[in-house]
Design brief:
267 residues; globular; binds zinc ion; Metallo-beta-lactamase, Chain A; alpha/beta
């Protein structure tokens, strides 16, 4: 059994990497919020990441999801069914999760670039962790409304450990959400802004995923403009290493690169 791969990026913020995908644990006291949950084949690694912080899955107050693609929803049903963990996301993403809508990227588009060795290797790995299974998340719920009973400022934060602030970044999927951790200066960007992916050129830099993964690439580009306004200096993407620098600069870099996507990168 392999060791869990993770590191701390800020006070009480820990990033873990499964099969070419990241998830994040946010700690507050003895409780945790999990952002995303890997592939289904990463489920054991998700549990191990929780235990690596000296906590148990019962200490999860909730999972919050960036979006309901199979590389981010893998452990959700297990965490809900075994430990009663609530599964929250933007209301626009719930149909993707419960399976009434399917906005996942096209396998045919991936097939067209399988001749590239990195893509072929990645494709073989993800098939092994559940890429070909269509898994739904029947217990997906929209974010709870803050009950206004506490005396904390109304900053749009969820009343969960680490007080993550959802930032709507639709495009990759209709309800794609990034999460800002204002006090830690961290933006968890999911697939709205990544720093590496087997289907991208082999550099580590802020980038949009290829358009064939997106439900609406024009909207994904507009989401980068939203992220330009976010005040944080650590980018934790859904795919690729953590990137240090102002999020506005990361978004600009990705916007610039998106304008120069070569024909070679298009499927
Ligand atoms: Zn992804």
């Amino acid at each position: 059994m392999s060791e869990v791969r993770g590191h701390q990026v800020a006070d009480d913020v820990f990033v873990f990497t499964g099969t070419a995908v990241n998830w994040v644990l946010i700690r507050e006291g003895s409780e945790l919020t999990l952002v995303d949950a890997g592939w289904r084949g990463d489920t054991e690694q998700v549990e191990r990441s929780i235990r690596s912080l000296g906590r148990d899955p019962q200490d999860l107050r909730a999972v919050v999801l960036t979006h309901a693609h199979a590389d981010h929803t893998g452990a959700l049903n297990h965490l809900h069914d075994s430990y009663g963990v609530p599964l929250y996301m933007d209301s626009a993403e719930v149909p993707n999760a419960v399976g009434t809508v399917d906005e996942s990227g096209g396998p045919l588009d991936i097939a067209k670039i399988l001749y590239r060795p990195r893509v072929a290797l990645w494709a073989a790995q993800i098939v092994g962790v559940g890429a070909l299974r269509h898994v739904t998340v029947p217990d997906a719920q929209p974010f709870p409304q803050d009950d206004g009973q506490d005396d904390r400022p109304d900053d749009g934060a969820l009343d969960l450990p680490g007080r993550p602030v959802p930032v709507a970044t639709p495009g990759h999927t209709s309800g794609h959400t990034s999460y800002l951790l204002p006090s830690a200066g961290v933006l968890i960007s999911g697939d709205a802004l990544v720093t590496a992916h087997p289907t991208l050129p082999d550099v580590v830099a802020p980038r949009l995923l290829p358009g064939f993964f997106s439900n609406d690439q024009d909207s994904a580009v507009r989401a980068l403009s939203t992220l330009r306004t976010v005040d944080a200096d650590t980018l934790v993407p859904g795919h690729g290493p953590t990137w240090d620098g102002p999020i506005s600069r990361a978004a600009d870099e990705a916007l610039e690169a998106a304008e120069h996507v070569s024909e070679e990168e298009r499927p």
